[in-house]
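Forgive a beginner's question, but would it be possible to get any protein sequence you like and the tokens describing how it folds?
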Amino acid sequence: MPGKQREVTTRFLAEPTDVNFGGKVHGGMVMKWIDQAAYACAVGWSGAYCVTVAVGGIQFVEPILIGDLVSVECKLIHTGTSSMHFTVDVRARNLETQEVRLATSCVIMFVALDSPDGKPTKVPEWRPQTEEDQRLADYATRLVEISKAMEEQMASGQPGTSGD
């Protein structure tokens, strides 16, 4: 769709203030980066103020170390009436060896609002253009279904069983 921003990539160096005592970036910091990149993508697509609704399937695959070049790659994969789903991959590049590794991935959902304290507002529709787009859109749809089932289970007062 012309004029709509479907993808955002942010890049920066992992700094000493981002890491824990083990020299690895805090998971909370990675989640902040994910939210910031996805917010930029959501606003770029919708042209509206947006809020984070959910993050699903977050996987911390490899650590990010001080001095790594971090890339947070966000791509729109599904739109509803007012909601947008994005896939986010966080990659880390060792600047000495040039090795690039996937550090974290997830799907994040935003809703567009008509003002910072307003009501949900319509977003432009996005339709898959490639087989990969369709695969990602189907994945987003499955996550919505799982999320709705979890909400229904919680509302019924039976959240399930906790593991040992």
